[in-house]
Amino acid sequence: MVVTSPPRMLPSGDSAITVEFARDISDAANRAVLTLDRLLSQNPIDGIRETVPTYRSLLVHYDPEVIGFDELSAALLERARTPDDGKAISNRRWQLPVCYGGEHGIDLEDAAATLGISADELVKRHASGDYRVAMIGFTPGWSYLSGLDPALGLPRRKDPRLLTPAGTIFDRRRADRRAMPAGPEWLASAGPHAGADLSVAPRSDLSAGAGRRARLHADRRQIVRRTRRGRRAWRAGRRTDRLMTKLHIDQIGPASSVQDEGRHGAQRYGLTPSGAMDVVSLAAANTLVGNAALSAVIELGPLGARFTARGGAVRLGLSGAPRSAAIGPRALQPNQSFTLADGETLTLGVARGGVFSYLAIEGGISGEPMFGSLSVNARSGLGSPYPRPLQNGDVIEAQPASAAADLRIDLPPSRERPIRVVLGPQNDEFGAEVETFLGGEWRVSATSDRMGYRLEGPTIRHSHGHNIVSDGTVDGSIQIPGSGQPLALMRDRGTSGGYPKIATIITADIGRLAQTPPGVAFRFQAISVTEAQAEYRAFAALLRSLPGWLQDARHGELDVEALFKANVAGTATNALDADEQLTGMTP
Asked: 3-state SS string over 164-191?
């Protein structure tokens, strides 16, 4: 395989570049990736935030307020001319105990039959290999290896598995850009390093380029188990009574969790940033109560919720999707701060015309940062004070409310316009179908979640098949899987993926898509990287300017009981705001 020289500089939205050294997997390409990654670590370019090495490309995240696409591309091309001195490949060796077959490798017998050899022969040959970690991606600790004996290559499964245990060893097909990455065969399970807690593990463990000496234990009867009360178990069960003032969660719907700006700097280890789906609303809620703009808040999904202050008053700020809000009979206006007195209950209805709302607590949320963030990523078991979505009965610690006046924030109205995208990095995989993508009318599927929004609309056909060699992804990457229906990657995305990416949503519009309810039609519009980066800078300026949008809250809130007594609307009520409809969990 010939390495592309010079490498291709492909835009991945407005704040990332994919430096592509080859179209397929090769040791030469992977060495070039790791060499450039090492050079950038030793002699950083101002503006680069983090890098994510993959099999054949290096994903470079950067700050468009510091450096632009053209300038950074030129600097990366200059660095990429540096010859490989061999230092990018680690000499560190690992020996991993492995159990083959049975419940630990349910595909072993089928894989052996497909290859025409016995299961024992497959185990012997597989365990005698010498492998190298080419990249880490998709999810924390997911190591992609090179070095498999080509004779052991297998076609990928027709349907990928939805769930696999930690430590699973897959056998992937020999390098083929249209056979990666989903659907490998499950041969074995690793022992001591399976399920390692990334919040405490050294970041250098099993990094890309590290060797795994596969003189693996081949005892198919051995069961390797690890039991210990980890830090995550301690965090989940720790006491929450250190402060007197607390916000009790009486009722809350699914898709609600603690989120901030997200965790950055560990995507090279498969750790996705997570963070708030709508950054503007996150910042607005925090600004209302005097917090730093991107501090942790409660991100509320589309259903309602109910909170009660205990042990003292709590000052809160609410922003995001419009929904009814009231403290007892007193209705609250959107985008304002308010104080919840000891024993009072805040009731929030379902979202209308949006999806996510943000409830900020004055003084912030108390928790233990993991990689610098409290953001919850349930799949990885990360987040604080609860490493999972919030549930009825949870308690959030709070500082006693200050005597600050209630404020409102009048955000600039959102313009009705298409969701803007930068084409690429693999738009050349679609030919004329790019126009189908841009000209089509799309709707968010009801099966969407924080990992990705499934889009329903015209079918997008691939020019060369629906799989590519896994490479880095970013927030807003739009993948086209085999179904031809786009998948927009959101905050809990994997850090790498193997479907071609036709375009990337610009930073300023990701929140707009996140707030688009299922069934609402919208379109995409392609803009240049230069235009997208100008929008990025305007978006960043808006976030910084939010304190200047604060005003005293309007007084004379509506008295709901008085309206009913006046019979303004007879006995009509809104079924969506009825108490029993708040979360869908009350009989």
From this structure: CCCCEEEECCCCCCCCCCCCCEEEEEEC
